[in-house]
Write a structure and sequence with these properties.
single chain, alpha+beta, T-fold, 2 domains, nine-stranded mixed sheet, 10 helices
């Protein structure tokens, strides 16, 4: 019965996945084990090439579940829930994972000059985007939410493992980084069990462990934002990397015939409007890939590409509304445009 339910869930959710695994070697297709569960509000799929005991999947899924119970603001009693409840009142004791992730989030906020801000929780809650539903806020509602956003109002007491949100009604939301962090933790866990060739897919946040068993790169399809069937616009050939995509096609609702997506600008309070409909970030860690996929989308092509080209371990594909692809220099030799995709690579 469990397998039947999972098949039905997969059928309903497959169109929402951001990236897709493209199989090109049928011999290797027969030499892996794989399983999926609904966790982190998405379909989580683990594929392992060099391990045969399927009991490992229960261990992995339970580990993911334990991290979600700490890092999700929506689970009562989690660290993030307690931070929200104690905002403006008292310090909250947190786990090592929460402390690590919030410190990293503050570093991202400083790097992005506030475009990435985990205290955007009130704004995220206000828009309440849960496709096909959402709430278009009044100007006053939006201003009230914006007044609560400022990562500098997070106080950290590392010595005692405590965190404080300084003002009442503040809310930290790790939705733009937690899946990446969890993927990295899962990779460490799997490697500790001797796994050296696998794909971790947290609803489109892909993290690769090593390469194929024969040492060749894995082929990862980049989702076509305009496709509801999971079609890909091209293939990235990489090993031991994170591939995270983000775009206007993931979560949105329609209000008065206009689409409003989930990538919210913490300065304007509105979904970001630029020439982009998607980005695909390739990085060493999924934590960075997750956070930068949102940040670089908000930054836009010119500023975002300048930042990426200044970094040694980050690459990106910007996907524009008019079907142009802007690819960072470190990724051009590893990307193959799909035939008849309708997209054009720009120099």
């Amino acid at each position: 019965m469990k397998k039947v339910i999972m098949i039905l869930i997969l059928a309903m959710c497959v169109t929402s996945l951001i990236g897709c695994m493209v199989q090109q070697d049928r011999a290797h297709d027969e030499a892996y084990i794989s399983d999926s569960e609904f966790l982190l509000d998405t379909i989580v799929t683990i594929k392992i090439y060099d391990y045969k005991d399927e009991a490992i999947f229960d261990e992995i899924f339970n580990y993911i579940r334990s991290l979600e119970e700490v890092l999700s603001v929506h689970i009562q009693g989690s660290d993030l829930w307690n931070l929200k409840e104690n905002a403006g009142k008292q310090w909250t004791q947190v786990s090592e994972d929460t402390m690590t992730l919030i410190k990293h989030s503050i570093e991202m906020s400083e790097l992005s000059m506030g475009l990435f801000d985990i205290t955007s929780g009130p704004l995220i809650k206000l828009w309440a985007i849960n496709p096909p539903e959402g709430h278009y806020p009044t100007n006053q509602e939006r201003e009230n939410a914006l007044d609560l956003i400022n990562y500098k109002d997070i106080q950290i007491d590392e010595e005692n493992n405590r965190i404080l949100l300084e003002r009442p009604s503040m809310e930290a939301n790790l939705g733009a980084i937690a899946k990446g962090y969890i993927a990295d933790k899962v990779k460490v866990y799997m490697k500790s069990r001797g796994i050296e060739s696998a794909v971790i897919n947290l609803g489109g946040n892909l993290l690769l462990i090593g390469s194929k068993p024969d040492g060749s790169d894995l082929s990862i399809g980049v989702q076509d934002p305009d496709s509801l069937r999971g079609d890909y616009l091209g293939i990235v050939n990489v090993s031991d990397k994170s591939i995270v995509s983000s775009g206007t096609y993931e979560r949105y609702f329609i209000h008065k015939d206009k689409k409003y997506h989930h990538i919210l600008n913490p300065f304007t309070g509105f979904p970001q409007e630029n020439e982009l409909k998607g980005v695909c970030v390739v990085s060493d860690t999924s934590t960075d890939g997750d956070a930068f996929s949102t940040t670089l989308f908000l930054m836009g092509i010119d500023e975002g590409m300048q930042l990426v080209e200044s970094m040694d371990e980050m690459d990106i594909i910007f996907i524009t509304d008019d079907n142009k692809l802007y690819i960072s220099s470190g990724l051009k030799d590893n990307f193959v445009l799909a035939p008849d995709s309708g997209y054009e690579i720009k120099e």
